[in-house]
TrEMBL record:
The gene is lysA_1. Belongs to the Orn/Lys/Arg decarboxylase class-II family. LysA subfamily. The keyword Amino-acid biosynthesis applies. This is Diaminopimelate decarboxylase. InterPro entries: Ala_racemase/Decarboxylase_C, DAP_deCOOHase_LysA, De-COase2_CS, De-COase2_N, De-COase2_pyr-phos_BS, Orn/DAP/Arg_de-COase, PLP-binding_barrel.
Length: 447
């Protein structure tokens, strides 16, 4: 698995970042724009921190990915990975482009249904589905359950039989292929918790065919996230093809394969994963197997569609060190930098700030943790107290991973579509943080 990245190239400039983010433009009067909306106008009215999503970017990227599959001669069932961004508005936009949903919890399943996604276009993945969640999947009649262990297979069979239902299942296989990404987002090597060991998959498929209440249809595979090269995809899919042929040779039909997701984006200057290359890998390794194909992308579609707006609370000068730029956004809002050492572009909203002289600074949040750091040493235009910035590529694994740590309320969310915009989740009121808390009657109230 890849070690944390050490960058050897200079940080991208504001101009560099805008060149790789066509959904963003810089207006000499209005400053940073997302589609046709000045982000400062949103910050003025809604305040910061604030998440902003671009509906147009969601549509364009979803259509581009599906176009790559079609161009490669592939017919695939696309399921958006709801864990990347579960807002109902986002799910509805993507449903209109033809996407179903890949869910990993009962809550996500209910969200997808609430967004209007038919049960027939929902796939349930995840390593630890509860009995209640599996019963929900059976009751809803979803397309399939991607089973991740022998134990889960037995449990699902018993639950399906008890309610006189039958569920299509795919066995998720762990191919022991290193996707070359950060250790915490790699899911396809042997030591990961995900999937059935490759060498045990055929025997478990045989067992699935014997169990009541199950319709084994094939295999699923997902090897990790933020994958930029087609090589690990091809390696994993080649192993999957071999397994399909062995399963058929043993006398068991295979009619479906779930190819997973994981295509990466350009956060810094690494370039983004190519939908055409991904489609080419699927076609080269799996295209001749006469099976129904499915994919479950998330980050590649949603991440570039979102930004996190924030305001500089203060500029803290440290003798002998770089200045600290302290934002009103924090790790409770955007966890990825603290969790993965993730790099996110930071761009000033003001056109004047965007062209100021650059300096090296540490960009941090106000949470009482040393890990509350967005960028430990970043070259940025000089930012003073009150300056506003956009943290880029936060449309996936951004708002969805937020918490209320330090009793910080959840930030507002806004959707931009052309020149119009709307609040799609108001800023949380602080009183709601303790509204459901109950103090036992034996604890006296203090004055």
């Amino acid at each position: 698995m890849a070690e944390p990245t050490v960058f050897t190239t200079p940080d991208p400039t504001v101009r560099d970042l805008l060149a790789t983010h066509p959904q963003l433009t810089s207006d000499v009067q209005c400053g940073l724009m997302l589609e046709g909306v000045p982000l400062s106008a949103i910050a003025d009215e809604v305040g910061t921190p604030c998440w902003v999503m671009s509906a147009g970017t969601l549509r364009v990227r979803a259509q581009r990915l599906l176009g790559a599959m079609t161009q490669a001669g592939l017919s695939v069932a696309p399921h958006f990975a709801v864990k990347a961004n579960d807002h109902v508005a986002v799910l509805r936009i993507l449903s209109e482009t033809g996407f179903g949903a890949d869910v990993v919890s009962g809550g996500e399943l209910r969200r997808a249904r609430n967004a209007g996604i038919p049960a027939s276009r929902i796939v349930f993945s995840g390593v630890g589905k509860t009995d209640a969640e599996l019963r929900l999947a059976l009751a809803e009649g979803i397309a399939q359950v991607n089973v991740e262990s022998a134990e889960e297979l037995e449990i699902l069979s018993a639950l399906a039989s008890a309610c006189n239902r039958e569920m299509t299942v795919l066995l998720r296989v762990n191919p022991d292929v290193d996707a070359g990404t950060h250790a915490k987002i790699t899911t396809g090597v042997a030591e990961n918790k995900f999937g059935v060991p490759y060498d045990e998959a055929l025997a478990l498929y045989r067992r699935a065919s014997e169990l009541p209440g199950l319709r084994p249809a094939g295999y699923a595979m997902h090897i990790g996230s933020q994958i930029l090269s087609a090589k690990p995809f091809r390696e994993a899919y080649a192993r999957l093809a071999t397994l399909v042929k062995a399963t058929r040779a043993a006398g068991y039909p295979v009619s479906a394969l779930d190819c997973g997701g994981g295509l990466g984006i350009c956060y810094r200057d690494e370039g983004e994963g190519s939908p055409d290359a991904w489609a080419g890998a699927i076609r080269a390794e799996l295209g001749g197997l006469d099976v129904r194909l499915a994919i479950e992308p998330g980050r590649w579609i949603a991440a570039p569609a979102g930004v996190l707006l924030s305001t500089v609370v203060l500029r803290k000068v440290v003798t002998g060190g770089v200045p600290f730029i302290i934002l009103d956004a924090a790790m409770n809002d955007l966890l990825r930098p603290s969790l993965y050492d993730a790099w996110h572009g930071i761009v000033p909203l003001s056109p004047r700030d965007a062209v100021a002289d650059v300096e090296t600074v540490a960009v941090v949040g106000p949470v009482c943790e040393s890990g509350d750091t967005f960028a430990p040493a970043r070259v940025l235009p000089r930012l003073e107290r009150g300056a506003r910035v956009a943290v880029l590529d936060t449309g996936a694994y951004g708002a969805v991973m937020s918490s209320t740590y330090n009793s910080r309320t959840l930030a507002a969310q806004v959707l931009v579509d052309g020149e119009r915009w709307s609040v799609i989740r108001p800023r949380q009121n602080v009183e709601t943080l303790w509204a459901d808390e109950v103090v036992p009657e034996w604890i006296k109230q203090t004055a």
